[in-house]
Write a structure and sequence with these properties.
With about 290 residues, the chain is of the alpha/beta class. The chain has helices at about 1-15, 65-75, 80-90, 110-125, 140-145, 180-185, 205-210, 220-230, 250-255, 265-275; strands at about 25-30, 35, 40-45, 50, 100-105, 130-135, 150-155, 170-175, 185-200, 230-245, 275-290. The protein has 2 domains: about 1-45, no CATH class; about 50-200 and about 220-245 and about 280-290, Rossmann fold (3-Layer(aba) Sandwich), CATH 3.40.50.150. Bound molecules: S-adenosylmethionine and zinc ion.
C-alpha cells in the first residue's frame, strides 16, 4: 500500500505530463489511487507502484524469469560502462537549467538501466531528475517498480505512450524496438533521443558456444542508422565495446537473459554452464539525435 501511495504522490506531482492513451485528454491522479482523464477513462495504480494503461493484455515474448536474469546480470555490473556512458552523454547534452529533467526509457524491461542512469546522472550533474519507465511487459514493470529508486513505471505501448507532446527531455531506447514518430511527439524541442543497438560482437561468446555456424545479428546497423537519421539530426554516434568476466554463478542468468538460448541445444548450454568463468563481449552502437530543425 505504501508503494501505491508513494507512486500516486509522484504521479500527482507530474500529472500534467500524462495524456490519456485512449482519447489524448489531460489526466489527473484521483483519490491517490488512479489516473483518470477528463472523459473518465481510468487506470488504477497497482499496489506494487506502477500504472497499467493498456486496455488489453498483449502477447509478450519475455517472461518473469528473463527479467529476473537481466536484473541479476545488471546487478553484477555487466552494463555499468553503458550506463555510465549514457549518464555522461546526457550530462553533456546541455539540457535547459532550472527544471526537472525528465528521462523516458521506452522499452525499459525490468528498469535497471533507467535506475542506474538516473542515479549516476544525479551524482554527476546534481540536477533534479525524473525517471519514467515504460514497457509492454507487466512482468518487466512489476520487477522495475520493486526497485528502491524513485521513478514512474507504466505498462504501456511505446507506440501509444500515455504522455503529452514534448513532455520528455531525454528518450532512451536501449536494445528495444522504437517508434520514431511517437518519440518525435514526446521529446521536447531541446531534448535528445538516444538509441542503443547491438553490434555483431554483442554476446558473441554465447553464439559461438551454442551454434556451429553462429548467425549474424538480425539487425542491420546501417538500416537502423538510416532510419534514425531520417527522423532526427544525428548529433553523435558512439561505439561502445568491452569485455566483462562473469563467474560461474552468473552464467545461468546470462543465458536466461537472452532469447539466444531459446534455440540452443541443451547439451551445449550445459557444457557452457560448466565453465568456471567466461569473458563476454558487449558491443553496442549508440545514436544520439535531436529533433530536426523545421
Ligand atoms: C531486449 S528487451 C530490452 C529491455 C531493456 N531496455 C534492457 O536493455 O534490459 C526489449 C524490451 O522491449 C519491450 N517492448 C517490445 N515492444 C514494445 C512496445 N511496443 N512497447 C513497449 N515495450 C516494448 C519488451 O517487452 C522488452 O522488455
Ligand atoms: Zn480518455
Amino acid at each position: 500500500m505504501k508503494k501505491r501511495l508513494q507512486s500516486a504522490a509522484l504521479m500527482g506531482r507530474f500529472e500534467t505530463m500524462f495524456q490519456c492513451p485512449m482519447c489524448a485528454a489531460e489526466m489527473t491522479v484521483a483519490d491517490r489511487k488512479s489516473l483518470i482523464c477528463k472523459i473518465g477513462h481510468t487506470f488504477d495504480i497497482a499496489r506494487q507502484g506502477y500504472v497499467n494503461v493498456m486496455t488489453h493484455s498483449p502477447a509478450v515474448k519475455y517472461d518473469k524469469g528473463l527479467f529476473e536474469a537481466r536484473r541479476t546480470i545488471a546487478g553484477s555490473g555487466f552494463f555499468e560502462p553503458l550506463c555510465e556512458a549514457l549518464a555522461d552523454r546526457i550530462k553533456r547534452a546541455g539540457l535547459p537549467a532550472g527544471k526537472t529533467v525528465k528521462i523516458l526509457d521506452a522499452g525499459c524491461g525490468e528498469g535497471s538501466h533507467l535506475a542506474r542512469i538516473t542515479e549516476e546522472l544525479q551524482i554527476r550533474s546534481g540536477r533534479r531528475l525524473l525517471g519514467v519507465g515504460m514497457d509492454l511487459s507487466k512482468a518487466g514493470i512489476i520487477a522495475a517498480a520493486r526497485q528502491d529508486r524513485e521513478a514512474i513505471w507504466c505498462v504501456a505501448d511505446l507506440a501509444n505512450a500515455p504522455f503529452r507532446n514534448r513532455s520528455m527531455d531525454v528518450i532512451l531506447s536501449i536494445l528495444s524496438p522504437s517508434n520514431y514518430a511517437e518519440f518525435k511527439r514526446l521529446v521536447s524541442d531541446d531534448g535528445i533521443v538516444i538509441k542503443v543497438i547491438p553490434k555483431s560482437g554483442y554476446l558473441q561468446e554465447l553464439r559461438e558456444a551454442f551454434f556451429d555456424a553462429p548467425q549474424k545479428l538480425a539487425y542491420s546497423n546501417q538500416d537502423t542508422a538510416d532510419r534514425f537519421c531520417a527522423h532526427f539530426d544525428l548529433e553523435d554516434r558512439m561505439e561502445l565495446t568491452y569485455s566483462s568476466v562473469l563467474t560461474q554463478r552468473l552464467l545461468l542468468p546470462l543465458i536466461n537473459m537472452t532469447p539466444l538460448s531459446w534455440t540452443a541445444e541443451k547439451d551445449r548450454i550445459n557444457s557452457f554452464l560448466k565453465k568456471e568463468s567466461a569473458a563476454i563481449t558487449v558491443d553496442l552502437d549508440v545514436f544520439i539525435g535531436r529533433k530536426k530543425a523545421k
